């Protein structure tokens, strides 16, 4: 199927998940999903399962490798590493981006580390001085006279490429040269996020933590908003029905094809009752993580509060009206004011396999979770605060602020620290001998199951 950008909402909503797999898939995957509501615990720590992911998932799936702001100028590069495979994401002289395998064709030396710039658009091996242009073609073989001519054929010694495409301000890579196009793989998640203007957003900050938790278990914590009342009690600003066991705001969960998932606000239901304090919740969100809701948003909301009851829906409408007015006056490109966009504010889109975006207003929180150090028990958890700046604004080249301990209150707000606190406890608990599986809610956790069903389909493929 050929996919076009900005499909009608009805077409997106029709892209529902396939559901549980049959024996053709399950027979090929150890610790496979046997049904929709139970996840075998071994999937989170088994070396056998982890090795299968290395072989069948990470080398054949599209994954977010970089923000475009990391490589603004020709010759800029950033390294992307996944399960021991290193790629150099390099900005080309024509503005395009390539992903080059990070290994010298002579003696395998890594050609770049971290991030930087290749002077003169030349990649130089630090061992013997071989040089390549940033498009991967060989420009100089030091000591060529010492080699048999057949061994230094330019086509044979050019740097190998991975597939590389850009979307939404991100660079995406796939080590499988026969993989389908990016937009086909990201359907329908990319279409939903484009409606929220993520393609216009840039990073406000970026940092990471190294966490003793399997990459899947870590990201699943953010596939649902059901945990807010217990994990983030300060954000639960409803004042009516305080003993309710679920968030009074109706939330709708949708599993999509390709393993993607979404949660967003649903239609109000009679009997839910309660009114959240819009302004107080916004302040706590900003103070707790400086993402999704930013200080400039709070300034706008406070400016129109006056003596209004900030739990009143009339105040909420007035605050949102003021926000759109502010964007127009400040030259900030605004998302469309449609029901599809507004329902996503405060929601979540999971882009299979390991990237999440949580759009709110003209901002977004983003997470990338990767295996760390060839160990199924550890992950590298990266966090971005994204926002839409006035047209013409330039933040300069994006660099990661650092790697910080999950409990570091100087570098992580209260909200991520509350979330991080659960992750290592889950990884320890998942190995408890009393457990053979986790049990999922049919209402709240359906996108977790969908991710695992898609993962099994990927692991069952014969390449």
UniProtKB/TrEMBL annotation:
Which UniProt keywords are present, listed alphabetically? 2Fe-2S, Iron, Iron-sulfur, Metal-binding, Oxidoreductase
Task: Enumerate the SUPFAM superfamilies for this protein.
Answer: Bet v1-like, ISP domain
Which residues belong to any copy of the Rieske domain?
62-173
The protein's superkingdom reads Bacteria
Q: One Pfam family, please name it.
A: Rieske
The cofactors it requires, by name, are: Fe cation
One GO molecular function term?
A: oxidoreductase activity, acting on paired donors, with incorporation or reduction of molecular oxygen
Q: Does the keyword DNA-binding apply?
A: no
Q: Which InterPro entries match?
A: Rieske_2Fe-2S (IPR017941), Rieske_2Fe-2S_sf (IPR036922), Ring_hydroxy_dOase_asu_C_dom (IPR015879), Rng_hydr_dOase-A (IPR001663)
Q: What PANTHER family has UniProt attached to this entry?
A: CHOLINE MONOOXYGENASE, CHLOROPLASTIC
Q: What is this protein called?
A: Rieske 2Fe-2S domain-containing protein
| UniProt organism field | Nakamurella alba
Q: What is the lineage of its organism?
A: Bacteria, Bacillati, Actinomycetota, Actinomycetes, Nakamurellales
